[in-house]
Structure formats: structure tokens, C-alpha cells
């Protein structure tokens, strides 16, 4: 969203006729409109929530940026981008505040079981960044899967800026983060591999691991390969990523259940492309204070996760699809596609 100070923060890359009355409030109106039209169950923000260099008070800007989410009463979560910390708060302070906001289910970092007591949890130490966590979505109340995860949403801190061999580059997802993610994935697969009991009746087969979706800000270097492949959407801007190949794609593929990853950073890209069986999708440009292209309408990505039903009971995820919603007069819906369908894997 690149939020600044609200009414006094001007828009970027809009037509001259729009500029005079355009501000951060256009971003707020667009997000509210999205919520009204799509009626979502959950909201995710993929970083650069505020544009730090445009505000003297990071906390105030954060509250204004997330106002539509808070007022909606919906659960929401966020990660940081490379601009959030450029004001009065560091990355740890920013994620701490975000995690404490109304209806936020964001976490500063993952929790682990505290050895001092089974019911106590402690923040995982020794992990890089702030804003690494997983959200498990359980099946509907009353269904066989009500106590089991049917979908995992993982969020990762891709950093901001770094220096490698004397050269400035963008941040990247570190090995400590990938170790945690792989460990979590293995634990989830072990749980689904056990003989589970529902209502006293054991399942006669193993349940497949829950599909997973990822969210982080800075794209991985492999996204550049998609320039030479068929994508759904528009590839209009060079991929601005780290010079470091940290093995993110390899780790995600090894997890075997990641179906899609949603990224930000390059605001003039809004495409989805497939790398080794995983869809990587940009959201496009939602914020009016972020750079864009004159005449290219602001937009946001929507994701739909559908459950299957057997014997009059909801079971696991059947299909995951996505599209984009434009901030035009018709709130146009474009580029609808299926990211994953359980039937296609059979």
C-alpha cells in the first residue's frame, strides 16, 4: 500500500486530471471497496504497508494503512517489505505493533513448545528477521476435519537491504528461516500420516498433508526465468531481487504441498507463473503512493480456497483459484485461473 500520512500524501503515476484530488485516501477507499465486493474471510498484506520515508510517525501510518482491515472485523495478517522500517520504528517494533492490532493474527516470529510446561509457548530464537510464522486453517466446525489443518498459510520476512561482497542488494530469505519452514512442514506431514480418529472411528487411510500458500515481499531470483515462459497477467518490470540464491525454491519444492506463493515489491507486475510446480503470483499495484504506470489501474489479488464434500461432510481443500480486482468504475475482475485442483493430481 505504501501508505504515507493520509490526505496530505500525494499519489504517484496517475493522470494529471486525477492528481489534484488523489492521496493515500484513494488507497483506503480501494481496500474498503475490495472488502465490500469480495466479502473475504481473511486479508493478507505482502509488505511495504507504509512508505517509511514519507511519514514522520510509523505507528500512526500503520494504523491508517490497516484501518480498513481493522474496521472490517476480519482476521488479517501482514509481512514487512523493504520500505516499512524507513521511518521511526525498526522491523521488530513494526511487527510487534502489527501483531497487537485489533483482529491481527500476525506474529513477530514462530512459537515453539516451552520445555518448562506443555501449555506454555515461547518465541523461537535463532531465526532471522521478524514476521516468520504459520497460520493453520482448520476444517469447518462439526466436520471430520474440524481439529485438523486443511490449509497452511506461511509468512516469511524477506528483509530489506543488505551488502554482499561490497555491493548493495535486496534482502533474501535466510537458511534459518528455511530450516524452520522445512521443520514445520515435516511435522505437519507426520501428523497427517498418523492414524487419526474421528468420533471414535479410525481413518482407514492416511490423510494427505494440507496444501500450503506462502506470502513474502521480495521475489526470489528464479522469478526472472518466467520472462521466457507463459504467464497469466502482465510482466512489465524487471524483477528486483537479491543477488543471493538462498535455495528458497528448492526448499518449497521439497515440502511437496506448496501450491502458491504471493509476492509484492515489483508494482508493475501482476502475473502468475509456474516454477517447478509452484505458482508465484504478484498482486499488482494496490497503493496510490507507490510507483505505477499512468493509465494502468490499481489492482489487488484475490484467492479462493474451496473445500470438497463427501458423505454430507466437508473434507479437505478441493481447489485453489485466483483473480485480480481492479479499482475502476466496474471493479472489473480479470485473469481468473486455477492454481491447484485436487482432481488434477489423481
Automatic annotation (TrEMBL):
Highest taxon, organism lineage: Eukaryota
Domain Calcineurin-like phosphoesterase, first and last residues per copy: 27-268
Pfam families per the UniProt record, alphabetical: Metallophos (PF00149)
Protein's recorded name: Probable inactive purple acid phosphatase 28 isoform X2
Organism, scientific name: Spinacia oleracea
Amino acid at each position: 500500500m505504501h501508505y504515507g500520512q493520509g490526505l496530505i500524501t500525494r499519489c504517484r503515476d496517475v493522470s494529471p486530471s486525477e492528481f489534484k484530488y488523489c492521496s493515500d485516501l484513494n488507497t483506503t477507499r480501494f481496500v474498503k471497496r475490495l472488502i465490500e465486493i469480495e466479502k473475504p474471510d481473511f486479508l493478507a498484506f505482502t509488505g511495504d504497508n507504509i512508505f517509511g520515508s514519507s511519514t514522520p510517525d510509523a505507528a500512526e501510518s500503520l494504523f491508517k494503512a490497516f484501518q480498513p482491515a481493522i474496521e472490517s472485523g476480519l482476521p488479517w495478517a501482514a509481512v514487512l517489505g523493504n520500505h516499512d522500517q524507513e521511518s521511526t520504528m525498526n522491523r521488530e517494533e513494526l511487527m510487534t505493533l502489527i501483531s497487537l492490532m485489533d483482529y491481527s493474527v500476525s506474529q513477530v516470529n514462530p512459537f515453539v513448545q516451552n520445555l518448562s510446561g506443555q501449555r506454555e509457548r515461547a518465541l523461537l530464537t535463532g531465526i532471522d528477521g521478524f514476521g516468520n510464522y504459520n497460520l493453520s486453517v482448520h476444517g469447518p466446525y462439526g466436520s471430520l476435519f474440524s481439529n485438523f489443518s486443511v490449509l497452511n498459510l506461511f509468512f516469511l520476512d524477506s528483509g530489506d537491504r543488505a551488502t554482499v561482497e561490497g555491493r548493495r542488494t535486496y534482502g533474501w530469505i535466510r537458511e534459518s528461516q528455511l530450516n524452520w519452514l522445512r521443520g514445520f512442514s515435516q511435522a505437519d506431514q507426520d501428523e497427517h500420516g498418523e492414524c487419526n480418529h474421528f468420533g471414535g472411528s479410525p481413518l482407514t487411510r492416511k490423510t494427505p498433508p494440507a496444501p500450503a500458500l506462502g506470502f513474502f515481499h521480495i521475489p526470489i531470483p528464479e522469478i526472472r526465468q518466467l520472462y521466457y515462459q507463459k504467464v497469466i497477467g502482465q510482466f512489465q518490470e524487471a524483477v528486483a531481487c537479491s543477488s543471493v540464491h538462498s535455495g528458497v525454491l528448492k526448499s518449497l519444492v521439497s515440502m511437496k504441498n506448496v501450491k502458491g506463493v504471493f509476492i509484492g515489491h515489483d508494482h508493475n507486475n501482476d502475473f502468475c507463473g509456474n516454477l517447478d510446480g509452484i505458482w508465484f503470483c504478484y498482486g499488482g499495484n494496490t497503493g496510490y503512493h507507490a510507483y505505477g504506470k499512468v493509465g494502468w489501474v490499481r489492482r489487488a489479488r484475490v484467492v479462493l480456497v474451496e473445500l470438497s464434500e463427501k458423505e454430507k461432510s466437508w473434507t479437505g481443500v478441493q481447489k485453489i483459484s485466483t483473480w485480480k480486482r481492479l479499482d475502476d468504475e466496474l471493479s472489473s475482475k480479470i485473469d481468473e485461473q486455477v492454481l491447484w485442483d485436487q482432481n488434477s493430481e489423481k
